[in-house]
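Quick one, probably user error.
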């Protein structure tokens, strides 16, 4: 037996199948891959560098934020970010006065901080919808392109934010403009059910442009649900709204809350995200900080006269105070402090990160629940695929999924080392194109659950084999600290208003691997 095989046998595998009733996983046989492919190559360790980052942040050039560009970048580096996108809000004063000034600060930050890949993007007010991240390849004309896009296609400037078929078409046209006029554009739908304004048919239409790669599986503002000393408290993720005039009527009231900090579309087994994946097309999830004011910070925004931002497109630099700020609006974390979007890049460049995002080679985590997640599949015919990939097999073949989790080894921002108590391997059917407003798909199940336990090197390995595969499907992975879930079950539950310490309910998710016939 080779040294590699001996190590895998020692590593062990846990996890008999878990019924949805929530029975405890049992210890199973040791992990033995029984394949000739090297484990490192199977998991992509010879091809990918896993880079943590954040695509949704704000500065003093947003009408509702305060940090300098350098403060956002410096804190992102402090918490281990490898890449970052500055996305100040589209707004008349921003388009008029802020874009070039922000770009000058970003270019200076690139020179000062070469250790981070820094984009200049924006938070787009989407016609007939709500918000989305927009960014594209840096270059000499990045500011002028961004300003043109904002001027011509932002709903705050064009007054086309209300829900209508004509405005939905405007949103798709705007994305097509990015496709035609910028290099390597990326669009991500932000906080999709916070206001219920992005219908499933809009997500599908945007996805099919090839530029809108996915949505925030978990929003920023994760500190908003902390219990407050004044007795008040907010909603984790800022999800405290109700259906409005422009909300899609098909969303139930529970869609307007987060579940373990994750959007209802993502957290619901067989929900909107699964229905999009069942179409057989990639639509990826991300996470972010949405940093405006970070909880516990000692910086405050100076008082300014009414109308100051509308006149200048910028707030003065924040000033230091002795008391840490924890009351609203300090509802955010800094980039990578709590939420991380981890991208498998072939190289540490702008193109490497965007290619990884577009390919769905992404997993996301809250509160440092896992230091790393690796997730691959191989067939009995010798083919392999990893996160975001597609594995083509013959009907009747066996497909084995292998996962590796490096357990947390350092304290997170709460001062404690989180424990990953369960990993769920989720299986869903690929049924082909569905009706545009399909928001549910049957047959999505937890194929197997695993209980990670410490192992030398702090990495645990598991596998699951699907035998005699007869129809296409996808698999994805989620993990939890196990603190909050449905009674007698394993599904996440709604966060409690004003009583949602985010560090007490941690989850992580991967994007799927598709198994094609």
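Nope, works fine. Designed sequence:
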């Amino acid at each position: 037996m080779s040294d590699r095989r001996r190590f895998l046998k020692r590593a062990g595998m846990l996890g008999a199948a878990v019924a949805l009733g929530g029975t405890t996983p049992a210890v199973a046989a040791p992990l033995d891959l029984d394949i000739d492919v090297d484990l490192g190559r199977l998991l992509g360790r010879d091809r990918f560098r896993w880079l943590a980052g954040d695509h949704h942040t704000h500065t003093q050039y947003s009408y509702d934020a305060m940090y300098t560009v350098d403060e956002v970048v410096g804190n992102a580096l402090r918490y281990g970010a490898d890449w970052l996108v500055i996305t100040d809000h589209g707004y008349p004063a921003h388009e008029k006065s802020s874009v070039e000034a922000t770009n000058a600060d970003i270019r200076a930050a690139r020179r000062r901080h070469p250790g981070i890949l820094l984009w200049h993007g924006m938070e787009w007010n989407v016609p007939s919808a709500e918000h989305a991240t927009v960014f594209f390849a840096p270059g000499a004309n990045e500011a002028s392109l961004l300003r043109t896009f904002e001027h011509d296609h932002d709903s705050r400037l064009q007054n086309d934010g209300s829900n209508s078929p004509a405005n939905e078409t405007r949103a798709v046209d705007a994305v097509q403009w990015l496709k035609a006029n910028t290099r390597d554009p990326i669009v991500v739908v932000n906080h999709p059910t916070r206001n219920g304004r992005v219908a499933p048919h809009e997500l599908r239409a945007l996805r099919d442009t090839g530029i809108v790669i996915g949505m925030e599986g978990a929003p920023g503002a994760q500190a908003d649900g902390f219990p407050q000393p004044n007795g008040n408290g907010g909603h984790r993720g800022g999800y405290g709204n109700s259906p409005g005039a422009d909300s899609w009527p098909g969303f139930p009231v529970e869609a307007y809350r987060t579940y373990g900090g994750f959007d209802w579309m993502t957290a619901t087994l067989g929900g909107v995200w699964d229905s999009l994946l069942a179409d057989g097309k990639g639509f990826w999830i991300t996470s972010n900080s949405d940093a405006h004011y970070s909880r516990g910070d000692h910086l405050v925004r100076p008082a300014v006269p009414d109308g100051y931002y509308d006149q200048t497109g910028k707030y003065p630099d924040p000033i230091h105070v002795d008391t840490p700020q924890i009351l609203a609006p300090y509802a955010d974390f800094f980039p990578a402090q709590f939420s991380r979007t981890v991208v498998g890049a072939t190289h540490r460049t702008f193109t490497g990160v965007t290619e990884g995002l577009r390919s769905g080679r992404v997993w996301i985590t809250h509160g440092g629940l896992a230091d790393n997640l690796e997730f691959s599949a191989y067939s009995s015919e010798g083919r392999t695929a990893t996160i975001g990939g597609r594995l083509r097999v013959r009907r009747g073949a066996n497909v084995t999924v292998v996962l590796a989790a490096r357990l947390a080894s350092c304290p997170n921002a709460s001062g404690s080392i989180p424990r990953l108590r369960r990993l769920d391997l989720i299986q869903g059917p690929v049924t082909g194109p569905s009706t545009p407003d399909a928001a549910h798909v049957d047959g999505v199940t937890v194929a197997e659950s695993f209980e990670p336990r410490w192992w030398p090197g702090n990495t645990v390995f598991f596998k699951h084999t699907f035998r005699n595969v007869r129809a296409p499907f996808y698999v994805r992975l989620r993990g939890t600290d196990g603190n909050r879930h449905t009674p007698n079950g394993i599904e996440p539950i709604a966060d409690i208003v004003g009583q949602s310490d985010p560090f007490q309910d941690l989850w992580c998710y991967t994007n799927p691997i598709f198994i094609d016939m």
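Residues 1-36 have pLDDT under 50 and may be disordered.
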